[in-house]
Amino acid sequence: MPTAIDIAQVTYEAPDLALMERFMTDFGLTRADGDAHTLYMRGAGRQHHLHVTRRAERARFAGASLEVASRAELDELAALPGSSPVTASDEPGGGWLVRMTMPDGFAIDAMWGRASSPAVELREPNALNDAVRKPRVNASVRVKRAPCEALRLGHFVLHVSNHDESVKWLTERFNLLPSDHFGLPGEEARIFGTFLRFNRGAELVDHHSILVLQSEKVGLHHCSFEVTDLDAVMGAHDYLLSQGWTLDVGVGRHLMGSQIFDYWKDPFGFRVEHYTDGDVVDATHQPGVFTGTAAETTQWGMEPPLEFFQ
């Protein structure tokens, strides 16, 4: 079975590439390539780019790409109904891809063979002197209010019209595993949301790389970038406020996945997240079902308004 091993990128369309670049630079990404028609932004890791914006009159989410481990897996995916042939990517970095379309029309590409970029050298995470362990000796924490480097694209969240159909589509093509579910209060068997993770055996992976949620508003809810630590989240939070960008929800800590989160709106209304300190699991992890209220999904911090979940 083809197996996804990472998120390669999310792709958008927007009318002003310069404005998108200014926001994403303040958010912690760096221009990797681009021209008058397309903008490619990278993180501090080895992915050639993570965030793509194509110039268009109307802003919209255009799709996402998942990386697979081999050309043979692309061939398997190309043989499935509704898949494109294996084709050469026309984006910087090259590689090969198979284009597929989810039931709600999201373009999902499987990608292999794209060139990597040298990783950016980052500071070490700041050591925390808690009540039991004091690893920071003869040293102080000095945090700058500045853009924080986005290490990588950690996950994205899709709102879909048919949860079960969409989860089946993703798991059958990419061998994803469920980490946890959302169920209706009092009706645990009625699942309306599933956190999906990569299946890399004994290797530790994020609690989720895709969240699929049943919704009347079909589309992308948000994409999320991992940063170094809590100080990076908070320094970037203050910097983004100073630049006049729009805070959505944050800072707080999620219940499902445990991430410390900070959500912002880009200039075209798309929600983007900084996160740190998320759960990691291996293939033995078994999912549970959460049936609490929306308010209970935040352990502490700024509580999302109800429209955040719609």
Task: Describe this entry's structure for a reader.
InterPro entries: Glyas_Bleomycin-R_OHBP_Dase, Glyas_Fos-R_dOase_dom, MMCE/EMCE_epimerase, VOC_core. Keywords: Metal-binding. Pfam families: Glyoxalase. This protein is mainly β and 310 residues long. It has a single domain (4-115, 150-309), classed as 2,3-Dihydroxybiphenyl 1,2-Dioxygenase, domain 1. The protein has helices at 17-27, 71-78, 163-174, 230-242, and strands spanning 4-14, 30-34, 38-42, 51-55, 60-68, 87-88, 96-101, 107-112, 152-160, 177-184, 187-197, 205-206, 210-214, 219-226, 246-254, 260-265, 271-276, 280-281, 288-290, 298-301. A ten-stranded mixed β-sheet has the order 19-10-11-13-9-14-17-16-15-20, with helices on one face. It is globular and about 60 Å long.
What is the strand and helix layout of this fold?
Layout: E1 4-14, H1 17-27, E2 30-34, E3 38-42, E4 51-55, E5 60-68, H2 71-78, E6 87-88, E7 96-101, E8 107-112, E9 152-160, H3 163-174, E10 177-184, E11 187-197, E12 205-206, E13 210-214, E14 219-226, H4 230-242, E15 246-254, E16 260-265, E17 271-276, E18 280-281, E19 288-290, E20 298-301
Parallel strand pairs: 1-4, 5-8, 9-13, 10-19, 14-17
Antiparallel strand pairs: 1-5, 2-3, 3-4, 6-7, 7-8, 9-14, 10-11, 11-13, 12-18, 15-16, 15-20, 16-17
